[in-house]
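> @MW can you paste both from yesterday?
MW: sure, first one:
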Amino acid sequence: MDSRLKLLLLFVVMAGAALLFLFYDAGSDWGYVLPRRGEKIWAMLLVGAGIALSTVLFQTITNNRILTPSIIGFDSLYMFLQTAFVFVLGQRVLSEVSEELNFLLSVLLMVGFALLLFLFLLRYNDSNVYLLLLLGMIVGTLFTSMTTFMEVLIDPNDFTIVQSRMFASFNSVDSGLLVLSTVLMGLIILYYSVSLAKYMDVISLGKAHAVNLGVNYNGVVRQVLIVVALLVSIATALVGPITFLGLLVANVTYQLMKTYKHRYVVPASMLLSMGTLLGGQFIVEQLFSFATPLAVIINLVGGIYFFYLLLKENRAWSK
């Protein structure tokens, strides 16, 4: 099947999932139900697009399809920041801090952390991405340990606040944050489309081939890493961490599209990611009655799929 036809089918499925989520069992009070469901759909489209694009770009520059940007430590840093806010300020003070301020602080600190890693490491190591991954895993483990330490010390009532932020939730996203996130993500995606998209097919061939073909490999990789850091930070600060969503949709997209061309893979992964979130949230609300967070289901399915990929790659290397 032609790649453009596959993209069209993915768009139809995603749009169908959005309409089903919006109108199913909406009752007669549409003025109350539809705006609230519309905000959830808006949030899921934003997060789905950001997570999918950042994962595909990250896997391209690392040339590894079982990695996601969370391996650098974004999820661990987000949980550390949220726990530290509660630990230092307390529940009462934190409840008076606006959602916009919390969002901006989280994004700025996560992006600042990523830039420190990139600038400090890549400047002196000739864009050694694998050394960056190793350092990110170590720092992520440090953040997780510090988070656990603070969770043990804080008041049980404060811990419930932290626990509510451990998993992504689309049920109470602030509309002001949606507008701000849309503007920021729109600018980032526009920058990627204009300045970086034309290099990604060549970058996927590896550093040696890209340099021989005249691409400024180090410069492009640094810009892509910054784009990835911005997208992941905004998506995580908006709804919370969803660790395995990117891994799941990116690899399913590769198997579905069967092409290396990013002009097909990137939009297909974004549509698939949006459809996954819409369908998953519909199941959570209509079948499970909010008993299980969507992030838990995605992480369960994504974790099983991650082990499948590991076994598959192991068999490939054993031949």
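MW: second:
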Amino acid sequence: MTVRPRAVVIGVAALLAMAATAVLTLGTGDFPIAPADVIRTLAGQGTAAQAFIVNELRLPRVITAILVGMALAAGGAVFQSITRNPLGSPDVLGITSGAGAAALAVVVLGGSSTQLSLAAVAGGIATALLIQLIGGRRGLQGYRFILIGVGMTAILNGIMGWLLTKGVQMENARAMLWLTGSFDGRGWEDALPLLGVLIVTIPILAVGCGPGLRMLEMGDDLAAGLGVPVRRLRNGTLLIASLVVACATAAAGPVNFVALIAPNIARRLTRAPGPNLLPSMAIGALLAVGADWLAMHSGYPLPVGVVTGALGGGYLVWLLVSERKAGRI
């Protein structure tokens, strides 16, 4: 794995900004705590009340936000590298919608939270496999891949709308809250499984697949000529990235646009080819924690998905205009 000093600086700066935002978030709430006291509490020197509020009530939510941001950014970075397209994010390609549709089916049927999480993971993986099947041998690249994903997203959104008409009022309220994407009430039972998935998959993506993805961005024929198993690499990374995104969706619901924005920002800041996996993950964590802090300070309690949706929608419009001016769409 090649280490680029500029990418390291960008990643470290994003992590420091994320840590500062996390401390502010830990001190925010009905019982405000000063940042210095939050740090002392995390070091084990706070009062019993501060330790309960910070470590037991607020820390699981912040850790879940960090991990979800990292997971979505990692998935987005891989998808954008595979498609060689900045629009190639799991949100656009239907992976998130697949996880959401499966989870919504569980909610409508009155399933438990564990069943909801398992269904979200299964739905995301099933959607990725279906896209591969529809795409065929040479379908997982370029705008053909994007178009298949957009079509899949439209179908899945239609299924979710139909499911909402079949649910009773209480079930629909629970479903709509989950579909918006929120870190509210998230605990260690949401964070720890996602942490385990990231510990296993990120080294595979960064060390095992990263060099191949960088060569794949130069074109399939050139990559194959350099000894890269193009089809196996593309299918394998697609499934691993889909698993990471589906697990993040299972933990917090579809937190839209983090997977689209974080890799784009990382690529522009590092000016380096390839998926820029680790800088993207640092920026994704910063976006998720920052959006959660904004949601808490909006004057009205908002799910974090509303904030990321508002920020991401504006960024998507700017990206589409930039791509059109560059003649790529």
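> thanks! The two ends are 32 Å apart (CA to CA).
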